[in-house]
Specification:
Two copies of one chain form a homodimer. By secondary structure, the first copy, chain A, is of the alpha+beta class. Chain A has two domains: 145 residues, 3-Layer(aba) Sandwich (Creatine Amidinohydrolase, Chain A, domain 1); 216 residues, Creatine Amidinohydrolase. The first copy, chain A, has eleven helices and 18 strands. A six-stranded mixed beta sheet of chain A has the order 4-3-2-1-5-6. In chain A, strand 3, helix 4 and strand 4 form a beta-alpha-beta unit. The relative contact order of chain A is 0.11.
Chain lengths: 377, 377
Amino acid sequence: MSVKPEAAGNGRGRTPYLSHFTEFSERRARFVESFRDTKIDAFLVTALPNVRYLSGFSGSNAALLLTADRSLLFTDPRYQTQAPQECDCDIKIAKKALLIEAPIWVNRLAVKRLGFERTRISFEAYDFLKRNAKTFQLVPVGDAIEQLRMVKSATEIATIRKAVELNSAAFDHALRTFKRGMTEVDLAGKIEYRMRRLGADGPSFETIVAAGPRTALPHAHPTARAIKGDELLLVDMGATVAGYASDMTRTMGVGRLSTKARRMYRAVLESQLVAIDSIKAGIASSTVDRSARTVLKKYGLDEWFIHSTGHGLGLEIHEGPRIGKKEARRLEAGMAITVEPGVYLEDFGGVRIEDTVIVTKNGCEVLTPTSKDLIIL
Amino acid sequence: MSVKPEAAGNGRGRTPYLSHFTEFSERRARFVESFRDTKIDAFLVTALPNVRYLSGFSGSNAALLLTADRSLLFTDPRYQTQAPQECDCDIKIAKKALLIEAPIWVNRLAVKRLGFERTRISFEAYDFLKRNAKTFQLVPVGDAIEQLRMVKSATEIATIRKAVELNSAAFDHALRTFKRGMTEVDLAGKIEYRMRRLGADGPSFETIVAAGPRTALPHAHPTARAIKGDELLLVDMGATVAGYASDMTRTMGVGRLSTKARRMYRAVLESQLVAIDSIKAGIASSTVDRSARTVLKKYGLDEWFIHSTGHGLGLEIHEGPRIGKKEARRLEAGMAITVEPGVYLEDFGGVRIEDTVIVTKNGCEVLTPTSKDLIIL
C-alpha cells in the first residue's frame, strides 16, 4: 500500500492495493457512526496516528475536525503541498496554532457537543479548548479511534506483512556482516541502515542490541560494548513501512552458551510457541498471557518474566490490545499483535523471542519468517 | 559526559566531566526553589525529558515526585537494574501504573498542594489524579522545568558540542560515499548508520533527504527517488549523544544548478549569517527572526520563508526558546538554539541552511563545524 501518493511513480512500480482515499473515507464514516453513542455532533482528532488513520495525512502537525458531513484537516504552511497529495479532506492551512483555528470552525459549523480524545489531549490543550468553548460543550471520549484501529483492514495487514518481511530481511542482511568484536551500536547501526536500504521509512523504535549480562535489561540502549565470544546476544528490532510498524526479537548465542542459557532459551521458545498456539478469535488476551506464563512456571522461570506477553501494533509500535495478565478483552480476527515472552536474570543475561502475528478466526498467522532455532554466531 | 553510567568503562575511557549525581541534585534543588512561587509543597514530574533532566533516569516509563527533602523516582520492573545505576533518587519499582502508585506517596508524605505539568500531562492522567486527589489539591504549573532547561550547564553544552561534532562527522563520512543515482533513502540510511558508528544514541529525528523539487517540502520523508544530476539536494539531520540532540541542514547542488537556485542559496546564506550576527544575550528572539526575514525581503523571497528561524534544543530536538516573529523572550547566555532560515518554491525547490549555536554574553558560538560554501556534488 502506498499511503503516500508522492511515493507512487517512484520507479518501484507498485500499484496501490486500492484507492486509499476510499479506505480513509470509509474509516471516517465508521467512526462518525459512533457519535450516536456519546451524543456528540463533531469530534476533534488531535493525536497524529489517529489523524493519519482517518485521513491519510502523515505530517507532524495536524488536527482533524469531523462532523456527519464534513472532514476538515488543519495543518500549517509547511504542509500546503503535501496535505492535498495525501488526503481528500477540506484542507485548512492554519497561520495560528491549530487549537485556535479549529474552534473557529466548530462555531461556524454550529457544533453543540464536541468530542475530544481524553487519553491523548494534553491538560493544557483541554484547558485552552474549554476556555474557548463558548457555544459548544466538550465531551471527553475514550479510545474510540484506537478501538477501530485494533482490527486491521486487508490493506493494513498487507502493509504490516511488508513491514515484517522487510524487517526480517534487514536482520538477515545485518547478521551476515556480523563479526566478533563488533560493538552493540555497530550491529544496531547496520540493522537500521539495512532497513532503510530495503525501503523502510525507518526503524519503528530504537533498535535494541544487547550482549552478555546486558541482555538482562529488557530495554537496553546499544552501547559501545564489544560483542565477544561465549555470551548471549539479544536483538529487538522493528521497521516502519508506509507508516506501519513491525516488531521482532531474537536471542542468539555468540560462541558457546552455558547449559543454563540454553535451558532458558528452550523455556522461552516453548513458552512463545504455546502462547501462539493458544491464539484465536474469541479468546481473552489474558489466556494468551497465561499460556506463556504456565510454561515458564514449569521451568521455574516465571518469576523472571517481568513484562506482558505482547501488544498490538500498527500505525504505532504499541497499540491495543495489550496481551497481559488482567486483559479480559477478547481477540478478534484481523488484530495484529506481538507474542514476546522473556526471562531476565540479573548479572547473568536474558532471553526474549518475539514474532508479529495476525489473529484469525481459527488461530493466527505468524507473519515473521525468521527462524526461531537457536542461532549460534 | 556520560549520563548513562552503564556506558562508563566501555573501553572508550572517557571520564565523566563531573559527578553527574551532583548536577542532578542541584537541578532538583533549583526547581524546588520555584515551589514558593506557586505555593506548592510537592511536584509530580511525568514528562520523560523533564524526569531525565532532574534525575538522570533515561528509561521509557517514569514519574518523579519531588518535595523539599524527598526525591522519589517511580518506574516499572523492567528498569530495576538500570534505575539505581542512573540516578540517586529513592527508587520505587511500581507493580501498578505509576499514576496509581505515586498518589499513595503523595498522601503518605502529607502533601497539601501538588504541582503537575499542565502542558505535558494528558487530560486522562489529570482526570485520574483529580479523582484520586482526596487529601491534596492539584495545581497546574506551566513550563517551569522547561524554563530551567533552556539555559544549559557547562556539562550540557559539552554534550551538545559532542552531538554537533559527531553529526557533522557523520555528514562528511556519508557524503564521501555519495554517487549519482543513489536514492534519498540510501543517503539517509548511510547518514544514520554513520551516526551510530561514531557513537550516537541514534538520530535526533528522522533524517530528511530531499532532492530536486522535493526540496520544497520542508519536512520531506526520504523516498526511493534517485538523486540525479543538475538539481538541489537538501539534508536535515541531527544526532543524539548521551541524550542530547544536535541539528543541522545543508543544501547542496548535484551537478549544475540554475542561476535561480544559486541566487536562492546566496539569499538564504546571507539571511542565516545576518541572523547569527544578531545573536547575543539580552536581545529578543524576535530580533533574530526579523534579521533573517529582512535579508530575504531584500531578495524578494521573504514570502517563501514559511517557518520560524529556529528553536532551542537539548534533551529534546524542539525546546525553548522559539526563534519566531512574535517571540519577545530575551536570549540568555548558555541557550542552545538553531538558526535555520529557508525558502521554498513549489515545483521548483527549496534551500535551508541550519547551524546549532550557543548564545554567549556578547554574541554566540556556532558549534556546527561544517562549511556553508555551496557544495557541488
